[in-house]
Amino acid sequence: MYKQSLAVVFAMAAMAGCTSTTLQNPVDFATYRNEPLVKQVDTGMTEQQVLTIGGEPSTRLQRKVHPGTCNNYILNKEGHQQAYYVNFDANGRVDSKGFMTCEQRETNEKTM
Q1: What domain count does the chain have?
Q2: How far is CA 75 from CA 55, 80, 89, in A?
């Protein structure tokens, strides 16, 4: 069982590396994959659709690197908390999401 779990984590890490420019922990995805924000929010959705799924964010930031906004959420599972962001472009559509804060995402964009 342990080997199978480890294989899944490595496979997810490989896939995450192919589909994202930001570094994220595949264990976070495995832990929170069934949370509505993670499972249901997709690129291109409107901010209102995201608010319907995830509710009000913990904080909302005006993006500095590119026009748009970013919502910070805190995911909770079995007493553990994990930051999760949903980024919106200038048209109010989801353009990225992931397991970090909006501030961390901005820092990553500046360094790339």
Answers
A1: 1
A2: 12, 8, 23
